[in-house]
Write a structure and sequence with these properties.
Blueprint lengths: L3 H7 L3 H18 L4 E3 L16 H10 L4 E3 L3 H10 L1 H5 L11 H19 L2 E2 L1 H14 L7 H10 L7 E2 L1 H12 L9 H8 L1 H6 L6 H15 L10 E6 L6 H11 L7 E5 L9 H4 L10 H7 L3 E6 L6 H13 L1 E3 L5 E3 L3 E7 L3 H9 L4 H14 L5 H4 L4 E4 L5 H19 L5 E4 L1 H11 L7 H21 L7 E4 L1 H14 L12
Parallel strand pairs: 1-2, 3-4, 5-10, 5-11, 6-7, 7-10, 12-13
Antiparallel strand pairs: 8-9
């Protein structure tokens, strides 16, 4: 067995390396009883600094056929080498080794158990083998059988209970190493979280009750095993004006259930407006770690947010159909990347003015939802076959002033969370909150302007007080309505005439 890195370490010069390999080949030939094996043979035909290219040395030996030689590599690398070194490829007889099926894999695992049990001082139950095959086939992306199952089986030894490796040990190994929840919810605290998902999410966002309910139902179905295992946990299309909570719900879901906002993968589809942008969507992670397939391969248990989906090129949307249909997306190397443990949320502002018009005329969302979707189809904004791939199409209603008062409370809670390490808290008088809402209310932009208004009127005030030393650690500073009125009034006065209240069509 020849090891490429060992050869480089003892013979770094090009001439030295060729002399060393020639000597090894001669010794193997003269011995008459040696089979030379080049495992991961592509390492012996690399080009560039610090790599090995032995094609000129090996080619005459291979063509002569007098030294028994075995090369192993995956088919993709063999195709690449065939293109750059066709003579080398012609000198080889190729044998395609197919992944093992379930009976073959079970037999291989049984053969390996003797080694695993001796190494890890555990005993494997048969249920562990069956579970290792099932979860390995689904969750291990970078190998094929039997390698998938063996990798999981060995990892499960670290999660043995009382020296026994069970099916639960296998599930624990997957959950801990890949960060995926695969077993049915059993712990009382998780059951409690699942039953109260809506209230937990509403701690972060206001209203949009139906949207919160449908995503919570999808999570509960997934964690009790009552769902189609060959599709994403849920696929939702969120429609509505900007600033009403579409993205915030995605963040809340990632935070509350998936373990943090870091488990949200966000793609702005207004950057995928050309047909050749499909390549960026499915690029190999080694070349483009920001591609959708690369990010999901690293974080398979996450929320996938596809923002402004109406702006994507039709070919990009066609590529995404496979994701919604089968729960997989093939990258540029034709590897299957699983989306079956993600929640896919697509958002769109399409028809936002029309939704606002229905609401202002007194209709409830449920009354005009289907009519509105038909209007989108008739306007050619979305194809029916694309809309049919979603589990739910959810309309988000514009936020009113009463709801924005609650948004102010959420924003202030965030400010206090930021200030907590400095032992300082801030509170705003009720009348002051109403002034903030009046200044930040814009039916076209939803809650977005509120954050800027709070930053100007509240955060800036607290920062100045801290610098002046008028607020001490352990205290709560109260910001009055008069302070807010003065700050907002002075900023409005600084603006040129005609800018304070621009017409809606400006």
């Amino acid at each position: 067995m020849l090891d490429a890195s060992s050869l480089i370490s003892v013979a770094s010069g090009r001439g030295e390396l060729e002399n060393l390999v020639t000597m090894i080949l001669n010794e193997a030939f003269l011995s008459k009883n040696v089979i030379l094996c080049l495992d991961n043979a592509q390492l012996f035909f690399e080009e560039g600094v610090g790599s090995v290219d032995l094609s000129n040395v090996l080619l005459p030996i291979l063509e002569a056929g007098r030294l028994r030689t075995i090369l192993t590599m995956d088919d993709q690398r063999f195709l690449q080498i065939s293109q750059t070194k066709p003579q080398l490829a012609h000198a080889l007889n190729t044998i395609a080794i197919q992944p093992s099926n379930e009976p073959e894999t079970m037999k291989i695992m049984r053969d390996q158990l003797v080694l695993f049990e001796a190494q890890h001082k555990v005993t494997y139950m048969y249920q562990a083998l069956a579970e290792a095959y099932r979860v390995g086939d689904r969750y291990v992306q970078d190998l094929v059988m039997p390698g998938k199952a063996l990798k999981i089986l060995e990892a499960a030894a670290s999660y043995a209970s009382g020296g026994l490796v069970t099916a639960q040990s296998v599930d624990d190994a997957i959950e801990k190493t890949l960060g995926i929840k695969i077993s049915v919810a059993s712990l009382s605290d998780e059951k409690e979280k699942l039953l109260n998902l809506e209230s937990l999410i509403h701690q972060r966002m206001i209203n949009q009750t139906r949207a919160v309910t449908v995503v919570s139902d999808a999570i509960r179905r997934a964690r009790t095993g009552v769902r189609n295992q060959n599709r994403p946990i849920g696929a939702f299309l969120f429609l509505g004006p900007t600033g009403v909570g579409k993205t915030e719900l995605s963040k809340a879901l990632a935070d509350v259930y998936f373990g943090g906002e870091g488990n949200m993968i966000r793609l702005d589809l207004n950057e995928f407006v050309r047909p050749d942008d499909v390549a960026r969507l499915i690029a190999d992670g080694a070349r483009d770690p920001g591609s959708l397939t690369a990010q999901v391969q690293k974080r398979p248990f996450s929320v996938v947010l596809l923002d402004e989906i109406e702006k994507a090129h039709p070919q990009v949307l066609t590529t995404l159909l496979q994701l919604l249909d089968e729960g997989i997306l093939r990258d540029e190397n034709n590897r299957e990347i699983s989306f079956r443990d993600t929640i896919v949320i697509a958002t769109s502002n399409a028809g936002a003015d029309r939704i606002r018009e229905y609401i202002e005329r007194g209709y409830q969302l449920e009354q005009f939802e289907q009519t509105f979707i038909n209007e989108l189809i008739n306007a050619n904004l979305f194809r029916p076959e694309f809309l049919n791939r979603f589990d739910e199409i959810v309309l988000f209603r514009p936020l009113g002033k009463e709801e924005l008062l609650q948004v102010v409370d959420l924003i202030l809670a965030g400010v206090n969370k930021t200030l907590a390490p400095q032992k300082i808290q801030v509170a705003v008088e009720e009348e002051g909150k109403k002034l903030l809402v009046e200044a930040g209310y814009d039916p076209r932009l939803g809650a977005r302007p509120m954050r800027r208004v709070v930053q100007r009127a509240v955060e800036n005030t607290v920062a100045k007080q801290m610098l002046a030393g008028t607020v001490a650690p352990g205290s709560t500073t109260i910001i009055t309505a008069d302070q807010i009125r003065q700050i907002l009034g002075s900023q409005s006065a600084q603006m040129p005439p005609g800018i304070q209240n621009p017409p809606l069509n400006s």
